Every structure is written in C-alpha cells, then in structure tokens.
C-alpha cells in the first residue's frame, strides 16, 4: 500500500505514523525562524510576483448570444489551496502563495519538510500566511488531500512528492506533475560560451538528474519542449515564434536565475515535455470560471427548435420536453 493510499484510508493516524517513520517528528505547526530570512529580498520578490500575476487576471464576460439569451462567465477564487514547499525554498513559497493571494484565495495552507520549516514559516509570516505545517513528503500531500481537504494542491517536490500528487489528482486537482529541472540553451558560433556554462551550472544545482542541453536551432529546442529555454545569438530574434517552453529567456542579460528569484515571472513550470500543451503557474491556477445562463420567454422560444432537433437526433425526449413550458 502506498503512503497516499494509507492516508486516504486511515487519515490523521497514518500521517502521524509516516511522519515519525520518515522524518522522526510528529506533524506540527512550524515555528518561524527569522534569523536567516532575507526579509527585503522576499518582500521585493513578492511585490514583483504580485504585480505580474494581478495583471494576468482574466476578464469576466457577458454576451447576449441571441435576443433573450444572456450568458455570463465570471472568475471566482478557490476557497482553500494547499502549497507544498520543498526544504528551505522560500522563493517557491512566494511563487505559489502570492498568486493565490492575488486571486483572492481565502485559505493558503503550507506544508514543508521539518528540516528548514522555520525559514519557510518566517517567509510565510511575512506574506500574511499563518498556517504552515512542518510536514513533508507524500504524507504531506495525502494530508492536504484527505485530512485538510484543500481544493487544489500546488508546488513542486521530489520524485516521491510528484508521484503522490499524481496519485491524489483523481480526487483533488493539482497544478503540474513536476519532474527534474530542465534548461535548453540555443546558441550559434558567435555566442559567448561563458554565458552558456553559467546557465548550465545554475540549472545543475537542482540535482544530478537536471536536464541541461545545448542545441543550435530553435527547432531542436521545440522538440524537447523544455522547462526553461534560453535564446542566445541569432535565435534571440525568433523569441516570438516559440510555442513549446515553460519560460523563455532572451539575450545575454536574461539569465534563468533572474526568473527563479527576482523578475516576478513564475518559476513553477512544466517539465518532461508538458510544455507542449500547458503553461506554468499563473493567477488562473487559483481561479475557476462559472457560467450563468438567463433566458427570457422569447429567448427560450427562439432556441426551442434547436433543442428539439438535437434532442430528437440523440434520443433524449425529456430534453425536448423540458423546453416546452
């Protein structure tokens, strides 16, 4: 039985047992440790993340598609979101929690491994978040899904956390499955090789399984669909053509770590080729659209023939009857 399955079946007791077995401590609220928190840097990043994500808010729309047939689509925030923060990664806390706040999420619940939980709790306190748990690994994902019962789980983690997120996703939506970090650098013969080595070295700090590639054409990069795409040299002029990448960094003055820590662009991005079909974390991650439909008597009469014809074709007589009133 997996950890997630155990938590699903036995709840809080299973979480406690796995936390003791794997981390040596019981789940508990994390106590903030401000001694090593780079307070000004956290606030600067949070401000940029907030401003960038607030600018992304999708518009509510209203349209009278036919006389007497009015449709509204409005975006509403989720009620409670669970954020998983890997050990000590206060920047990831900002990337996940601040867009949730900007969206209007009422409750942000943070889980982070006990080692380093004090630092994450201090950063959370700075952001106005008071529910931070010293609880890591798959047991934290199970707790968020089946004990705390959040509406969505976001945030990256190691392979075990990723598998746990995928396992709970049939019951609780997640943001993205997270794989090893990736960078692909597109270069030509005139590019300063030192810039390339700096990008590869920075990405390599994420672990021995990090994907660090250098290619010569944008087409090669597009086939990989990387988490981070760096364009140097002649490829810089083709930035607007990119379709398959989590985030694109253009030119010698745009290193990937600038996006990781300071620009305000989100660093929770698709990996493993997922950039072919999805983007990174944004304010819409924490919103859901609701459509409202209002018809007048004349509006219903106007569309009744369409309903009756399609209902007959599909063998749904009660559907046809429902519009005859």
What CATH architecture of the largest domain do you see?
A: 3-Layer(aba) Sandwich
Helical content (DSSP H or I, runs of 4+)? 25-40%
Instruction: Tell me the strand percentage band.
Output: 15-25%
Q: Strand tally, please?
A: 11
Biggest sheet, open or closed, and with what strands and sense?
4 strands, parallel
Specify Rg, calculated over alpha carbons. 24 Å
Terminal-residue CA separation: 54 Å
Average of per-residue pLDDT values: 97
User: How does the helix and strand content classify structurally?
Assistant: alpha/beta
CATH superfamily of the largest domain: Nitrogenase molybdenum iron protein domain
Kindly provide the name of the CATH class of the largest domain.
Alpha Beta
Query: H/E order of the elements?
Result: HHHEEEHEHEHEHEHEHEEHEHH
Describe this structure in words.
The chain is an alpha/beta fold and 325 residues long. It has three domains: 3-62 and 77-175, Nitrogenase molybdenum iron protein domain (Rossmann fold), CATH 3.40.50; 182-276, Nitrogenase molybdenum iron protein domain (Rossmann fold); 293-322, no CATH class. Helix content is 40%, strand content 18%. The strands form three sheets. It has a four-stranded parallel sheet with strand order 5-4-3-6, with helices on both faces. Strand 1 and strand 2 (69-77) form a beta hairpin. Helix 1 (3-10) packs antiparallel against helix 2 (12-23), helix 2 packs antiparallel against helix 6 and helix 6 (137-146) packs parallel to helix 7. The longest helix has 18 residues, at 297-314. The chain is globular and about 70 Å long. The model has no long low-confidence stretch (mean pLDDT 97).
């Amino acid at each position: 039985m997996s950890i997630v399955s155990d938590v699903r079946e036995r709840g809080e007791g299973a979480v406690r047992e796995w936390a003791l077995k794997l981390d040596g401590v019981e789940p508990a609220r994390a106590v903030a440790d401000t001694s090593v928190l780079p307070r000004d840097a956290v606030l600067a990043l949070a401000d940029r993340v907030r401003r960038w994500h607030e600018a992304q808010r999708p518009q509510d729309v209203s349209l009278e598609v036919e006389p007497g047939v009015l449709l509204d689509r409005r975006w509403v925030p989720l009620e409670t979101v669970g954020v998983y923060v890997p050990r000590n990664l206060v920047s990831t806390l900002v990337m996940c929690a601040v867009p949730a706040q900007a969206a209007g999420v009422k409750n942000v619940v943070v889980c982070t491994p006990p080692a380093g939980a004090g630092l994450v709790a201090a950063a959370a306190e700075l952001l106005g978040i008071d529910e931070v748990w010293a609880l890591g690994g798959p047991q934290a994902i199970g707790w968020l899904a089946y004990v705390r019962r959040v509406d969505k789980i976001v945030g990256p983690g190691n392979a075990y956390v990723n598998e746990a997120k995928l396992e709970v996703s049939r019951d609780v939506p997640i943001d993205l499955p997270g794989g090893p970090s990736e960078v692909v650098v597109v270069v030509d013969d005139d590019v300063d090789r030192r810039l390339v080595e700096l990008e590869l070295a920075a990405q390599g700090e994420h672990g021995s399984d990090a994907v660090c590639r250098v290619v010569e054409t944008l087409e090669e990069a597009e086939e990989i669909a990387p988490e981070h795409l760096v364009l140097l040299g002649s490829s810089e002029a083709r930035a607007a053509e990119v379709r398959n990448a989590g985030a694109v960094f253009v030119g010698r003055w745009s290193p990937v770590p600038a996006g990781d820590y300071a620009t305000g662009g989100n660093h929770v991005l698709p990996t493993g080729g997922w950039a072919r079909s999805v983007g990174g974390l944004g304010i819409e991650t924490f919103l859901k659209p609701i459509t409202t439909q209002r018809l007048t008597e004349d509006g219903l009469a106007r569309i009744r023939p369409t309903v009756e014809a399609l209902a007959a074709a599909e063998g749904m007589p009660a559907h046809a009857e429902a519009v005859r009133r």
